[in-house]
Task: inverse folding
């Protein structure tokens, strides 16, 4: 803390000046406190205006209903409507499916690839690392449009699968409710695996080599070493990547909007997209949209707490 | 590594790399082919790049969209750097209990999903439109303002300030520099790499941002690049060669930044786990 240091200097230089010195010290402290607050002022105001104030507005909105600007208070009616709204329940189900399938699969894949890449005797490591990370450079909209065409019924993926005789008929990647979800999951996994892998790689590089050597001497198999040493050492990163991926998946919007537009028949629609549709696509019902928003916020909080608990208990 | 292991490791990595790179190669190759070749699954470069670019320039407002995206991203990056670094510096250098409480409250904003903010923000800018149309709905300013300040960036600057040699600040004070002078003349130049990493991630996020511009920018001449790509992608009779050319052009700036500044890029990413 700089102010303390400054006053220390003052007191050694000017001892014996008694009360006036104490007074200047107090003034200096106050001045420093003011300087500190003014440094953080703009950012704090901006966060309040663009995050906290809107959330309060959303809370107030969630007790109102009506179309466009004609809103009236309806109490908890919107919240009751949530549980009877089939579209909302479908979007929650879809989002949870993405979460349960995609996040664990991607994290395991990222960890697996990082362990393979961490081998120092490997040739072309830099090339592999860059290639696998490359998808993280693309914009969500751009890669979504590319995936939409790759996975079209007459798209190149179906053409290639048929050429190698893995399938006899083209898969309805975008128009079948099951395969459309698979396409979304494949797309997100493609985009984010390399990104998460970089976190694991940097954590692996910090693990002391001698631990592995000791395990080898004790006769541990590679699989034992992985589960007994690598995984526990990576725990903070596993927690970090699963929380960020969970929050990201709960907010999923760009991909679904641009690959399937939520279809077929809402089979891929996410909660974020439903909020968008409620506000800007259907006849706007901002009140109910705000209620759905709070559903996501609550889900994010619950999932984050669960993940912290799970990661904490295994200690 | 045993021979078997070696074959296994290399084949997994080669497959993973191929899967990762294939959509890029397909995009670049398709940008040089005409639409019918793309549909037939042609994987060789063609000679239609020039034609695709001309078509693109004739069908959509590509250059204005690039300009809008550039204006929004550059303004966002400059403002974000200034606001977040001032705050990160303030929280770390003038640490106090009160400020730590404020800091933790600000961090809570990271839990708020943008989907929850978009409706109240849209209404807020709608209200502003009545008073100050210059910064209301359908202006580039409205596209910039809500995305400028993120708790993540403040956190990032605070973490990096922890390693800043604080003795230099004392020297600055002795030389009679004011607090802002110390910040701009001593802190900013010393923290160049932190700024580079933060600027890269902010610029990329802004250049690629889709949801907020989709909500707030309504007239076609205000369109950003992601909005333009999204519109092209949802057309009923798509010209694949042309659309892939548009995507290549949209991806070029971020890909260039990545390849030229890989080190800073990864540093920016890693900032979140420090």
Result:
């Amino acid at each position: 803390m700089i102010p303390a240091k400054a006053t220390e200097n003052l007191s050694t230089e000017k001892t014996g000046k008694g009360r006036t010195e104490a007074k200047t010290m107090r003034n200096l402290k106050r001045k420093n406190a003011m300087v500190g607050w003014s440094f953080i002022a703009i950012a704090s105001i901006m966060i309040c205006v663009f995050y906290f104030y809107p959330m309060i507005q959303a809370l107030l909105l969630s007790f109102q209903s009506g179309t466009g600007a004609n809103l009236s208070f309806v109490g908890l009616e919107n919240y009751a409507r949530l549980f009877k709204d089939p579209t909302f329940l479908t979007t929650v189900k879809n989002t949870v499916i993405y979460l349960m399938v995609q996040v664990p699969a991607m994290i395991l894949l990222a960890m697996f690839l990082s362990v393979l890449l961490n081998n120092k005797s490997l040739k072309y490591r830099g090339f592999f690392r860059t290639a696998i990370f490359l998808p993280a450079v693309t914009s969500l909209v751009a890669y979504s449009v590319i995936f939409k065409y790759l996975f079209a019924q007459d798209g190149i993926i179906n053409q290639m699968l048929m050429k190698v005789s893995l399938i006899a008929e083209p898969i309805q990647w975008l128009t079948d409710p099951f395969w459309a979800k698979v396409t979304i999951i494949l797309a997100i996994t493609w985009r984010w695996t390399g990104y998460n892998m970089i976190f694991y790689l940097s954590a692996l590089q910090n693990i002391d080599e001698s631990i592995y050597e000791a395990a080898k001497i004790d006769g541990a198999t590679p699989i034992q070493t992985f589960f007994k040493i690598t995984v526990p050492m990576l725990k903070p990163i596993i927690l970090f990547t699963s929380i960020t991926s969970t929050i990201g998946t709960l907010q999923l919007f760009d991909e679904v909007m641009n690959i399937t537009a939520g279809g077929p028949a809402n089979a891929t629609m996410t909660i974020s997209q439903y909020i968008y549709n409620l506000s800007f696509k259907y006849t706007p019902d901002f009140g109910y949209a705000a209620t759905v928003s709070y559903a996501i916020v609550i889900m994010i909080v619950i999932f984050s707490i669960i993940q912290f608990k799970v990661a904490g208990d295994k200690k | 590594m045993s021979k078997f292991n070696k074959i296994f490791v290399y084949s997994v990595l080669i497959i993973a790399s191929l899967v990762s790179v294939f959509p890029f190669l397909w995009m670049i190759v398709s940008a040089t082919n005409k639409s019918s070749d793309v549909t037939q699954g042609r994987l060789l470069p063609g000679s239609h790049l020039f034609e695709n670019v001309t078509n693109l320039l004739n069908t959509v407002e590509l250059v204005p969209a690039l300009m809008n995206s550039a204006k929004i991203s550059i303004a966002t990056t400059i403002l974000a750097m200034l606001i977040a670094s001032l705050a990160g510096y303030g929280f770390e250098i003038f640490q106090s209990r009160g400020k730590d409480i404020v800091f933790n409250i600000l961090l809570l904003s990271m839990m708020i999903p943008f989907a929850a903010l978009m409706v109240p923000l849209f209404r807020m800018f709608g209200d502003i439109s009545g008073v100050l149309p210059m910064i209301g709905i359908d202006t580039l300013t409205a596209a910039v303002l809500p995305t400028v300040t993120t708790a993540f960036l403040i956190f990032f600057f605070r973490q990096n300030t922890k390693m800043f040699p604080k003795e230099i600040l004392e020297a600055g004070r002795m030389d009679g520099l004011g607090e802002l002078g110390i910040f701009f003349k001593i802190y900013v130049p010393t923290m160049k790499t932190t700024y580079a990493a933060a600027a890269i991630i902010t610029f990329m996020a802004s250049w690629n941002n889709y949801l907020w511009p989709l909500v707030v920018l309504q007239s076609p001449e205000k369109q950003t690049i992601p909005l333009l790509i999204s519109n092209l992608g949802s057309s009923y009779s798509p010209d694949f060669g042309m659309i892939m050319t548009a995507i290549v052009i949209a991806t070029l700036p971020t890909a260039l930044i990545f390849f030229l500044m890989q080190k800073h890029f990864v540093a920016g990413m890693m900032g979140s786990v420090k």
About this structure: The first strand of chain A starts at residue 64 and ends at 65.
